[in-house]
Amino acid sequence: MQSAWNVPGDTYVMDKDRYFWYQARSDDMIISSGYNIAGPEIEVVLLAHPAVAECGVVAAPDAERGHIVKAYVVLRPGESGDAAMTRALQDHVKATIAPYKYPRAIEYVESLPRTQTGKLQRCELRRIAQDSARRIAS
Length: 138
Known about the structure:
Layout: E1 10-14, E2 20-25, E3 29-32, E4 35-38, H1 39-47, E5 52-62, E6 66-75, H2 83-96, E7 105-108, H3 122-137
Parallel strand pairs: 6-7
Antiparallel strand pairs: 1-2, 3-4, 5-6
């Protein structure tokens, strides 16, 4: 509680009618070039693509934008994680929601890190993205 407000660590947007709309957990928000982007929103769009079995979206460090949207994607059997698939997934996101929200980086993986109860561990994906950025920078 802060000043009689419950502060759950979630991000909301208030519309012109003063209604609050849930965006994402604060630690799942990606700030890229000043834009606030909810990682789970991108996940929903990617999961709607027929080639995607699972995905997780996090912020990855970027020298120019501060962070970029990075998607870790598990493809369905028979699909190929090549440049054409990357373009197709990026175009799918651009066509479905605001174009600035598309994942600028997509990494194809065999599986995603999960808790014992099966919940996606975005904190682990964030750590992987950070480590990858450090390796590239050095």
